[in-house]
Amino acid sequence: MSNKRIGKYTVKFENRPSIISYASVVGPKEGEGPLRSYFDLIEKDDYLGEKSWEKAESKMLQNAISLSLQKAGLKDSDIDYLLAGDLLNQLMSSSFTAKQIHVPFIGLYGACSTMSESLSLAAMLIDGGFADKVIAATSSHFSSAERQYRFPLELGTQRPLSAQWTVTGAGATILSSNGEGPYVTYCTIGKVVDLGIKDANNMGAAMAPAAADTIKQHFDDTGFDVNHYDLIISGDLASIGMGLTMDILKKQGLDISKKYTDCGYEIYNSEYQDTHAGGSGCGCSASVLNGFILKEMEKKKLNHVLFIATGALLSTTSSQQGESIPGIAHAVSIENSFNK
Amino acid sequence: MSNKRIGKYTVKFENRPSIISYASVVGPKEGEGPLRSYFDLIEKDDYLGEKSWEKAESKMLQNAISLSLQKAGLKDSDIDYLLAGDLLNQLMSSSFTAKQIHVPFIGLYGACSTMSESLSLAAMLIDGGFADKVIAATSSHFSSAERQYRFPLELGTQRPLSAQWTVTGAGATILSSNGEGPYVTYCTIGKVVDLGIKDANNMGAAMAPAAADTIKQHFDDTGFDVNHYDLIISGDLASIGMGLTMDILKKQGLDISKKYTDCGYEIYNSEYQDTHAGGSGCGCSASVLNGFILKEMEKKKLNHVLFIATGALLSTTSSQQGESIPGIAHAVSIENSFNK
């Protein structure tokens, strides 16, 4: 067991990796939702003046990164690594962003768990002394994701009530070895968990067992009481998945219900936005983290947050070949104080 | 600048991350090539008894990982992280491998640069004290890649002479904080470089500028003479890309020609295997590293190797939308001795 591990699968950071800047960009629909006042930029047109939805998504990710740099008074050349990924085949959004931003690029794929995957690795690269400043970023776009994973939008296919609405959004977080917090204090990288769900229109149910597994592991490893955190927030389980997650954990003796919510549940208003179970996509947890969560932490309304982005590792090929949907979740503790 | 960086973009490892095991698995065609005696397992059937090429690829990756564990006398539960990625949409091969191997999973996408991306991160996680044992692994399969990126194989489309042949192969490397070498001593994470090549049948040319950029950066940062290394070997530039890389570097005053070759150039015999420019795919550099290179290092016939896996970050969507092919390359120094 190496010196920065506690319990079986959790890392405790020692060298105060600090969040020094962050930014969120969303599409028009997200800009009409309950969290609208927290986003840095609400795009008026979901094409962003580009010729395709994929290029629009990449532009949105570039905007989030540029804004985060701008807010910190930094340039590309101040950054050691860009850690990014997205839902598009071969990370089209991140790859074409990395082409514009002249920084060593580490491409990640964790489906919608990418925001906590990139944050965890960014914190490790800083804490380990390999970098001074790292950007962790991700994006998703309703139209590029739907046509890739499900149906051409022109078909107007009816969606079941268990379906989630892919968020058009992007988020970027800049971490530094030198800052005043909030700090990344712990991370718990998850294992792939698959209980056999095959319905790509019920991803919350597919991801819930992985979310529960990682949350349980985190509390087992750290020995924390649920009350250690002001907020425990998963990535994009939405209404069905979050209920399942709480149920699974309750059966294992862990009741998180008083502290728990989900980014996909919070980002839309189900009454007037017709989003069924709630939001999904990498951009869901990315924009909620880099909008709502970090702004509330800046105001000290939140001080100890456990953020668990969740991913469904399906592809159209795996679905067509009759495979079930493997889920994954990574947990990151973000806290305003740093206790050695 | 943090303490483990030298020059602008290179990491110098301090805590002796050591390669303690490795394994390579290839398909029948690679098993007839010039490096056949170096591979641990040559599959007789490129379906591996599975019902699809994608499932076969995932099985091959599982076989490489299992073999590497077996050779070291280790079990899944001894491993802290699995770092893996592949070419398939949403990493189908790696995701379904991670479902079988119960280890925290960090999914990566660097196209064919994944072997050096995963090795670099694995070394950082160990050197930084976050892990004791990490598996870095990747795979590719001729048939799953060709039908995803280019044409249905049933069409029998004629391939231009600049085209490369996707290697059916997988490789896994186990790194540990405690071992007798070979050690990962340096890594240089690359930036995305794109000089405007749009032909998916000429990927060597698309990746060469990125390879040259990373190699130049590595020598600039370390101050090494080319003679520091016994071998400088790129991932899958094949005959066209390797010539271009040497030319670009020569114009910048760096002549690597006496030490340099390429995994894609070495893995097939162009005279009797009809592979045109040479091999490509994540499995190309993965099987050559975990076959030829590490076996030659074990015999001390090679002692100082610079390994530069190279990736072409295209997708069918980006090609259809008229985009050029961004390239990336990451360099890793693997050495039998460790000088602090």
Based on the model shown, name its key terms.
homodimer; 340 residues; seven-stranded mixed beta sheet; six-stranded mixed beta sheet; 10 helices; globular
Describe this entry's structure for a reader.
Chain A has 340 residues and is an alpha/beta fold. In chain A, 34% of the residues lie in helices and 22% in strands. Chain A is built from ten helices and 15 strands. Chain A has helices at residues 53-72, 92-100, 114-127, 142-149, 203-222, 238-251, 263-266, 270-273, 282-298, 316-320; strands spanning 5-6, 10-12, 18-26, 41-42, 81-86, 105-107, 133-140, 165-166, 169-176, 183-188, 231-234, 260-262, 279-280, 304-312, 327-335. In chain A, the strands form three sheets. A seven-stranded mixed beta sheet of chain A has the order 1-2-10-15-14-11-12, sandwiched between helices. In chain A, helix 1 crosses helix 2 (92-100) and helix 5 crosses helix 6 (238-251). The longest helix of chain A is centred in the N-terminal third of the chain and has 20 residues, at 53-72. The radius of gyration of chain A is 18 Å and the shape is globular. The first copy, chain A, starts with a strand and ends in a 5-residue tail after the last strand. The model of chain A has no long low-confidence stretch (mean pLDDT 95). At the A-B interface, helix 2, strand 6, helix 3 and helix 10 of A face helix 2, strand 6, helix 3 and helix 10 of B.
